[in-house]
């Protein structure tokens, strides 16, 4: 390797002809900005080399997120435009492409190979020499760490080779939409407000659905199915319930070519229908508890919709239970909430705050509602699951009675709890970064992607044989979420293109195998979260992969927990509340008297709502933010999805 290439192995670690293994933990030495370069380079370098035999000076640059090709940036500027990063012809031997970082975020006008971070010096229109023959690729050494703009900056790459999604820090909603669409999780449908869940997104949903289903069954519930339509008279039986849903209900008024005698609601939820039906099932205390769960779709006509987060139709689970006593029903509400906590924290690595909803936020018709609240990367809250104590309201209005042990006829106590495809949105927003999705290994459709690296046919054969040899071992690997889910990416694309493809989709681990690795009996494992690399003997992968995935899962949870802690603030006055919410956002723990008027005032003034009164919020005498009346404990406020 010559002078241009000298320096850190990290810039070269991906190269097929790299000299020795990538340095373990080398990313820790990469300052912000340079980490990008290490990641950006392969895509372009390979793209260049792929085109060696065609038209070397008319190369196209792949759109790394969509896989399509686009014109090189700045192509139209043409020869003669100012070239800030021009260097003289390489001092190294013939036919060499030289790259160098283009400095902090400069776009190189006039250079067809310029990107946000790279300038292709040799393909620059100013370059006098014509390139012929086979090419080799060299990278300049990274700038010294001391030139990093912020010495304390994290070493995690700020931006990888995903160049076509909006940066999370610049525009969170646009970033979210980009990730959902470009990672092919979901797309818009011909019906406004509804979504099409694509295979990758559906796979993420299936994983959390199946895990929750295991919890539901483990705690004694049975799955059932009820119809999509609810007769109007039934929905209107419980006055408060129908009032809460009325504007959102979609009605079927015509069917079979004529107007219906009674309109049918497309279920916004199934309480009313279930209460009506189960009165025949519940006659005696022996019929209780009745523990049912439904996996279905519901429709709530939303005016402002966002994929996964708020759609007119969504998939969910709704549990409905009936109990002889209030205490049993209260325990059931807690059981539902615990199932949600377990799925959120242990499966999705999203820490949650458990608590009780305020009266205004309580489910229509319920006595009280409990919920779990999670913090997203933009510091806003998302309600990740709710569990409702329905008391005897629904049973009474439906006329359900049972004969109790004391020979008295009584109305049973009901509960309901729901968890929806909204949690796919939560998973995206709780972990994602500038490069796209970051998926917890438990829920990732693919936990590992193997990227073969080769140039010649001989190399390809060697790498192919090595991967063949590895596969029996990989098939035996068991992870916390079942057999290892992995794929080998043999597509006719450059390694960089593949890295980008799988990074955008949040695959936790990448295994790079090139001819030198094969010779050394090892492979390079790269983590999606921080792009940390390590070389592992191939024979150790069977043992190490489950450990690495478990550690990754734990680290994601810890990272989210730290993020939440850093962005949770205790405030005591309304002025402080407004200032902190505006300047920092996040979760605000503040005293509130419990009055709905004060709650509404805060919402009108600031956009924040009470999320929950956390179970673990200690007794603490204080004074309400708005009217100064006594408050017994702090309540969690936040702007929310
Ligand atoms: Zn108050």
Question: Would you mind describing this structure in some detail?
Answer:
Strand 30 and strand 31 form a beta hairpin. The protein is built from 15 helices and 31 strands. It has four domains: 1-159, no CATH class; 176-228 and 268-431, 2-Layer Sandwich (BirA Bifunctional Protein, domain 2), CATH 3.30.930; 448-552, Anticodon-binding domain (Rossmann fold, 3-Layer(aba) Sandwich); 567-638, Translation Initiation Factor IF3 (2-Layer Sandwich), CATH 3.30.110. With 641 residues, it is α+β, with helices and mostly antiparallel strands. Strands 8, 12, 13, 14, 15, 16, 19, 27, 28, 29, 30 and 31 form a twelve-stranded mixed β-sheet that branches. Strands 23-20-24-25-26 form a five-stranded mixed β-sheet, sandwiched between helices. Helix 1 (34-50) crosses helix 11 and helix 3 (199-218) packs across helix 7 (326-347). 29% of the residues lie in helices and 24% in strands. Zinc ion is lined by residues 593, 595, 598, 624, 626-627, 629.
């Amino acid at each position: 390797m010559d002078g241009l290439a000298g320096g850190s192995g990290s810039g070269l670690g991906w190269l097929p002809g790299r000299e020795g293994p990538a340095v373990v933990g080398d990313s820790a030495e990469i300052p912000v900005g340079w980490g990008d370069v290490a990641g950006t380079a392969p895509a372009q370098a390979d793209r260049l080399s792929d085109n060696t035999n065609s038209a070397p000076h008319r190369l196209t640059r792949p759109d790394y997120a969509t896989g399509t090709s686009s014109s090189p940036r700045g192509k139209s500027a043409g020869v003669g435009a100012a070239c800030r990063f021009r260097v003289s012809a390489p001092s190294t031997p013939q036919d060499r492409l030289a790259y160098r970082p283009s400095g902090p975020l400069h776009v190189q006008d006039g250079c067809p190979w310029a990107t946000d971070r790279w300038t292709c010096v040799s393909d620059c229109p100013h370059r006098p020499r014509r390139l012929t023959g086979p090419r080799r690729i060299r990278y300049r050494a990274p700038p010294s760490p001391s030139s990093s703009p912020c010495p304390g900056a994290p070493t995690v790459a700020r931006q990888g080779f995903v160049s076509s999604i909006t940066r999370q820090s610049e525009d969170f909603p646009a970033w979210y939409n980009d990730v959902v669409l470009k990672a092919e999780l979901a797309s818009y449908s011909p019906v406004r407000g509804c979504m099409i869940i694509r295979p990758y997104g559906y796979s993420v949903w299936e994983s959390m659905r199946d895990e929750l289903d295991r919890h539901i069954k483990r705690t004694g519930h049975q799955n059932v199915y009820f119809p999509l339509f609810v007769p109007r008279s039934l929905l209107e039986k419980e006055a408060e319930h129908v009032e809460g849903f009325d504007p959102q209900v979609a009605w079927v008024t015509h069917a079979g070519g004529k107007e219906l005698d009674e309109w049918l609601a497309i279920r916004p939820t199934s309480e009313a229908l279930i209460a009506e039906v189960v009165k025949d099932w519940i006659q005696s205390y022996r019929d209780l508890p009745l523990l049912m769960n439904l996996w279905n779709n519901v429709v709530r006509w939303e005016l402002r919709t966002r994929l996964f987060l708020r759609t007119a139709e969504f998939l969910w689970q709704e549990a409905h239970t009936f109990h002889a006593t209030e205490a049993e029903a209260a325990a059931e509400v807690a059981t539902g909430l615990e199932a949600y906590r377990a799925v959120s924290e242990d499966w999705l690595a999203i820490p949650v705050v458990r608590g009780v909803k305020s009266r205004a936020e309580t489910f229509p018709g319920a006595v009280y509602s409990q919920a779990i609240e999670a913090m997203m990367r933009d510091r806003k809250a998302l309600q990740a699951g709710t569990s409702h104590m329905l008391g005897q309201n629904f049973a009474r209005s439906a006329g359900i009675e049972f004969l109790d042990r004391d020979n008295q006829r009584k109305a049973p106590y009901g509960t309901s709890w729901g968890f929806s495809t909204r949690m796919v949105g939560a998973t995206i927003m709780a972990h994602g970064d500038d490069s796209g999705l970051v998926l917890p290994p438990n829920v990732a459709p693919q936990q590992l992607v193997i990227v073969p690296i080769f140039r010649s046919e001989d190399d390809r054969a060697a790498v192919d044989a090595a991967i063949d040899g590895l596969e029996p071992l990989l098939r035996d690997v068991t992870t916390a979420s079942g057999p290892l889910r992995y794929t080998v990416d043999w597509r006719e694309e450059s390694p960089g293109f593949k890295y980008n493809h799988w990074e955008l989709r949040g695959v936790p681990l990448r295994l790079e195998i090139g001819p030198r690795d094969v010779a050394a009996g090892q492979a390079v494992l790269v983590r999606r979260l921080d792009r940390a690399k390590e070389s592992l003997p191939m024979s150790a992968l069977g043992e190490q992969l489950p450990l690495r995935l478990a550690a990754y899962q734990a680290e994601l949870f810890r990272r989210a927990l730290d993020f939440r802690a850093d962005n949770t603030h205790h405030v005591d006055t309304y002025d402080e509340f407004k200032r902190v919410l505006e300047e920092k956002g996040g979760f605000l723990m503040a005293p509130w008297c419990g009055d709905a008027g004060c709650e509404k005032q805060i919402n009108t003034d600031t956009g924040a709502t009470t999320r929950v009164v956390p179970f673990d919020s200690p007794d603490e005498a204080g004074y309400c933010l708005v009217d100064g009346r006594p408050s017994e404990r702090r309540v969690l406020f936040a702007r929310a999805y």
